[in-house]
Design goal:
It contains eleven helices and eight strands. The chain is α/β, with parallel strands linked by helices and 257 residues long. Helix 4 runs parallel beside helix 6 and helix 6 packs across helix 7.
Length: 257
């Protein structure tokens, strides 16, 4: 059986080509559903994949679509579009039965920083709906840091919804791009709420999705903080090519020896 905590990111349309590799390497999977993928999803095919993954002992998480979506938008029509997409991905989750579904919260200080309380108020109803859908699927709803420079916005969102279903997905690459606090400070605030982490590296200039150890992030410190605050958190390698995934798996193995 695969290591329960280790997943690798795979776009859903690539699952057929990737499944033999997952089985051979004993890896779990985070399936990414884009908007186009959801619009063209064949329910019977999805159900077949869910059965095959379960039979192979491969645990699932889902990464929801995010491009141009805004759960806390001040524009009601944009919130409704976002709501429809979020429910669409949770419909897929009802079939796949994932451990977690990762969403982007959509906060951007350049748009919402002056009126953050309104952004939070507009966001909460949709997250409460997602928590209800999470109850139905028995999965975690995990909000991922994107442009956040420090953890207070995500902390406020999670604590205001106040459900054990709503948790944090820590993306180490995004943290490195936008951070104004240390790893230790981030974990001191959000570590107790951490259900998943996205593992990839960069040099602080763009979202390179490098294997760990090939950028500037102190991965040993990250893993030690995970062991301290969230030892059971899902660890998802976000590598965008098979070759980078191989290097990332090797680096993870070396760090864990």
């Amino acid at each position: 059986m695969p290591d329960n905590t280790l997943h690798v990111h795979v776009p859903y349309p690539q699952l057929a080509n990737t499944l033999p590799f997952l089985v051979e390497r004993r890896l779990n999977v985070e399936l990414f559903f884009s908007a186009d993928t959801l619009d063209n999803l064949i329910p019977e095919q999805l159900a077949s994949w869910a059965e095959r993954l379960e039979y192979a002992g491969i645990k699932r998480t889902i990464h929801a679509p995010f491009m141009d979506l805004s759960p806390g938008s001040y524009e009601p029509l944009l919130r409704e579009i976002t709501r429809r997409r979020f429910h669409q991905v949770m419909d897929a989750a009802a079939t796949l039965r994932p451990r977690a579904v990762v969403f982007h919260p959509g906060f951007d200080k350049w748009r919402y920083g002056e009126t953050r309380d309104r952004w939070l108020a507009e966001s909460i109803p949709l997250w409460e709906e997602m928590v209800e859908r999470g109850d139905e699927c028995d999965c975690i709803i995990a909000v991922e840091n994107i442009f956040e420079e420090e953890p207070s916005t995500l902390f406020d969102l999670i604590t205001c919804v106040d459900s054990p279903r709503l948790r944090h997905c820590f993306d180490m690459g995004h943290w490195n791009l936008f951070k104004k606090v240390s790893l230790e400070e981030w974990f001191s605030v959000l570590g107790p709420f951490m259900a998943e982490t996205h593992i990839h590296d960069n040099h602080g200039e763009k979202d390179e999705h490098l294997p760990i150890g090939e950028g500037e992030i102190d991965t040993r410190l990250l893993l030690s903080l995970l062991d301290r605050y969230a030892p059971g958190a899902i660890r998802t390698i976000e590598a965008h090519t098979r070759e980078r995934l191989e290097r990332a798996l090797t680096a993870m193995k070396q760090l864990q020896q």
